[in-house]
Every structure is written in C-alpha cells, then in structure tokens.
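Page 47, continued from p. 46.
Same chain as before, 206 aa.
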Amino acid sequence: MTLTLRYMRMEDVPQVITIDRLSFDPPWSARSYAYEVTESSYSHMVVLEQSREDKPARGLRRLVKNLNPQPPGENVIVAYGGLWHIADEAHISTIATHPDSRGRGYGEIVLAGMVRRALLLKASYIVLEVRVSNVAAQSLYAKYEFHTVDVKPRYYHNNGEDAYDMRLDLTDPERQARIHQRFAELQSKSPFVDLYSAAPPPRGQN
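Result:
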C-alpha cells in the first residue's frame, strides 16, 4: 500500500464528491470542484491517494481472475482538502476524510500538507472555520498551533450552528521550523509520497 499526497485532478472529482456528501451538509457541487481544479488561479486542491498492489491470485481465485481480468491495483482517494492563497492570506476551504478511513491519521497528513504548502507560498497566516461542536477537528488544528480568534454566529446554514474562526501565524521563524519538523516527523511515522506541498501547481498559478 502506498499513500501519495498530490494535487487534485478532474478524474478525482467523483470520489471527492462522494466523501464530501458523506461529510458535509450541504456538500460542494461537482461544478465547484471543477472550477477549483481547472479554472481558479488561487486554489491549491489536494488529495491523499491510497494505492493497493494486488496480491497474486492462486487456485480458484486465479481462475476467476483470468476469466474476469481486473486492473492490477486500485487507487482510492481517502482524504482531500482545499487551500486558497490570495496575497498574504491562505484559507483552508475544506478538508475531509472518507468515513471508512477515519482514525488513521489521513486528515492530519492533508492538513500538514496544506500548512506546509501555505508556508512555502509565503503566506503570512492561515484561516479556517470549524463548527463549535467539532471538538476532534479543533484538537487537530490546535496541535498545529491554530488559535481561535473569533466566533461567527450561525455560520452554517443547514442548522444555524456557530463557527470558530481559527488562525495560524506563519511569520514566526521558530514556528516555521516547527512546521517543517512536524511535517518530516509525520512523513516518517506514516510514510507517504509528497507531490504537493513543495510542488508547483499543475496550472502554474502562484
């Protein structure tokens, strides 16, 4: 099994939409993702892809496989995120993990990748909104040194729940060093190929 952190592509959108619909109400539309991937000059959409190598088939399984050949492996999007970069601000627009893959640290890999990407884009700070009831997400953001700076009343339209406005200052050199160190430690603990955080966007935006 191989994990790859990379830029989102159009062919990923159907899987991303599935995760989105299982995670959010209301979810983003397919058109919104298409715009982020192919048109937006400030979007840095990311996916965490899991590749599984197929085990050699034996006996009856091998016979069935020969009668019904399948691709040698399958690539599955297990988590994704969205980062906007405008002037000196970075904004985490969305982040989610497939329900079947939660509890394995995949969301942290996506978050860490976006934080490092924002730093390398020379953003001065990152902002995000999170439901006041989503304690697990708040704990993860706090681990990466986000702080709550405000409350946005009735931010979520589906149920009128408030959102915390959380921010991360990227201008402190010591914090910058911790971000790089934390990313390296995470990559060592949960090995993944990073084709995102330090890579140029596929459309060449800055």
